[in-house]
Amino acid sequence: MFASFILVSALLFISLYSLSLIFFSSRKNSTSASGGNKQQHPPGSSSWSFISETIEYIRASLDGVPEKFFFERFKKYSSQVFTTSLFGETVVVIGGTASGNKFLFSNEYKLINTWFPKSILEIFPFAKTNVGNPAGHKSLRKLYSQLLNPESVHKYIGVMDLMTAQHFETDWDKNMHTDEVIITVQPLVKKHSFAIACRLFLGIDYQQEASRIHELHKLFCVVMSGFLSLPINLPGTQLNRAIKSSKLIRQEIQKAVRKRKINVLSHGDSPMQDMLSRLIDLSEEEDRGIDEMYIVELMVGIIFGGITSMGVVLTLVMNYLADFPNVYKEVLKEQMEVASSKGTRELLNWDDIQKMKYSWNVVREVMRVATPSPVGFKRASEDFWYDGYFIPKGRKLVWSSAATHMSPDYFPDPEKFDPSRFEGDGPAPYTFIPFGGGPSLCPGQEYARLEILVFLHHVVRRYKWDKPMPTDVNKEEKIVFKPYPLLTKGLAIHIRPHL
């Protein structure tokens, strides 16, 4: 009965929302016509397609090919600029081309600013006032860049190295008394990535507070599942659960901030300068007046940025290394050369990371064929023209890294997994964009690179692995996007130690 009520309410909401879009769209068109304005708007679907277009995008994503949604419409409208309805909004898609990406990235703060769908804004109210306007966004980006600049994150390589070794000893090696073990990778690497984030961002040690980290991780998982859900905040919906979990996360992090602030301001001993300590220091410099809740929201943003794609990419890397033994062999060779240059128990450092060129090319090719963030969001802050079409101020914009990464114009035979694409000068500018670009370039990309390469250094030297043969009961798993790429069964593999 309750499920039926939710379904009926959702359909009613969608219907009313669609009618309101049509009403206001028709009023706007009538006003333009009466003024004699004949701007040519991008071709595309009407507001009646609010449901069908979103369903089509979700269907393509669950089939593992989100780019299909965009390619079909590029062909249908003979244009890579078109209008559609996604995530409860009428949007204009500008993307799939290097020129489109360049235009969006280079015009941020000029013609374009950042926008997020309603579901994300409901989960993170902080984003409404501090990301949705240029001044707030610039201030936020400046703080993030201070916390996540290469010089700062390079200091964390040793901690990542130690924690990764402990992770394999605790969670992978415990069953290695047998010749062959089947494990599920995805939940293990998500747990590991979150533990590192808690240690480096909040100073919470997994060895001492495992249960606390476990409960926090469950809340973060609920929030991530509601990112691009339908904007329906009713009891039992994904969005409602995500909003509640987000509030609990902020309460928990607020406790950590208060405790750490007392310690920092009293000049107490700290085992390492984690990001929370650095942020508190920054807030005291020049009397910036950064209040407690602002620090809480900043830390929530950093943690989400640090874990949203990490578990995804680590799992996908292991998936492709299982599928391509020749690539695994080359990664192993490179990592063994790095290890052979180290002394006994000597931790990895920045120079070691610099030697992992082939390994990083493999990771980049993984992020191309299964991009961690297949779509991005912008909004027109001024009227402008693009490719012969008029884009009015306030219009929501969507761009797609998935469409660019799988375009044969930039990557011949795009479905082929080929790390050699990144040798030499690599792809042309604005064609490989897993971290976005321009002022909104992901500030945590160097942090992500370090964590992924440290993980690879350990996993390939410890294990060989392959996938169990699929059967009628246990069918082969595939990559789906929900909204990030995931393995449908979490990547079950056989692991064996090197002899």
UniProtKB/TrEMBL annotation:
Protein's UniProt name: Cytochrome P450
Entry's family note: Belongs to the cytochrome P450 family.
SUPFAM superfamilies: Cytochrome P450
Domain of life from the UniProt record: Eukaryota
GO annotation, biological process: isoquinoline alkaloid biosynthetic process; sterol metabolic process
GO molecular function: heme binding; iron ion binding; monooxygenase activity; oxidoreductase activity, acting on paired donors, with incorporation or reduction of molecular oxygen
Keywords per UniProt: Heme, Iron, Membrane, Metal-binding, Monooxygenase, Oxidoreductase, Transmembrane, Transmembrane helix
Sequence positions that bind heme: 442
Cross-referenced InterPro entries: Cyt_P450, Cyt_P450_E_grp-I, Cyt_P450_sf
Name of a matching Pfam family: p450
Transmembrane annotation, as ranges: 298-322
Names of required cofactors: heme
